[in-house]
Amino acid sequence: MEKDKERLQVIQNIRQAIAKQTFNVKVETNDHIVTPEEREHIILKYDTRKKKLRNKAKTIVATSITDSLTDFINLNTEIKGIENIKDIKTGAIVTSNHFSKIDNTIIRYLMHKIGKKRKFDIIVQESNIFMPGSLGWLLKNNRTIPINKSHKYISNNFEPTLEKLFNKKHFVLIYPEEEMWFNYKKPRPGKIGAYHYACKYNVPIIPCFVEMQNTNKLGDDGFYTQKYILHIMPPIYPNNETDFKTAKEELRQKDYELKVAKYEEVYNKKLVYTFNENEDIAGWN
Fold it and tell me: Can you name the CATH fold of 5-280?
C-alpha cells in the first residue's frame, strides 16, 4: 500500500527540523493558523471551566463518547509502572511524548485505571480548538484548555483555571514537546511551561513515555498500526529549597533525562538525534 503523501511531507518536515535541531516546531501541514480576530473573540473568552449550561451538556456527551473510544483504541495498550503514582494525594501534571492526534487517549486510559476519569484535563495548543470534523468537536468539548502566549488570557483565564483544578486534585496533561510529530519514537527536549506550573502550584510531574510497537496490520495511510506501551516513571517534585528559575529548570532536565533513559531501555539503543525513517518513525516498515 502506498504511503499517504501528506504523511510523507510531515516526515520530511521532521527530517528538516532534526537537521536544524529545532525540536518543538510545527511539522503538520494543514494546522489552523489562529487569526487575531479568532483569538480575541473565541480564545480569550473561552469557557475553560465549562460554566455555561450548553457547554456543560456538550462536555457530558463528548466525555462519554471519548471514554468509550479510549477503551476501544487502547484494547491492547499496556501500562507499566502504575505503582509509581499510587501515593500521589495532590493534583499533578502528566507529561508524555506527543506523536499522534489520539495519543491523549493513552493517558486518558491510565486515568480510567486510577480513578481519575472525572478529574483529568488536557492542555492543548489554541489552534486545536479550530480542528474540523468529529475529532475536532470531541477535542473542543472535552475537558481541554487552550493555551497561547497572550498575557491577558494566561492571567485572567488559563492560570485561574489551573489553580482551581489543582486545588480539586485534578491531573493535567501537558505536552512539553508542544507540537505533534507523527509516529516519532524519540523523546524531544521540552519547553519550560509544564515545569513552570508545577513549581508555581507546587504539584509533582508524572513523567510518562509511550513506546510503540508495530503490529502486522497496515493502516489506511500505508503505515503499520501500533501497539502502545505506556511507561510511568516515579513522580518528580519541585525543589522548594532553591530559587524558582532553577527549580523549574531542574524539573525539565530531570523529566527529559527519565524519558531518554526509558527510550534507550525499551528500544535498546542510544538516543542520538540523527534521522532515519526506518528507525525513527513507527509504522514505516
Answer: Glycerol-3-phosphate (1)-acyltransferase (3.40.1130)
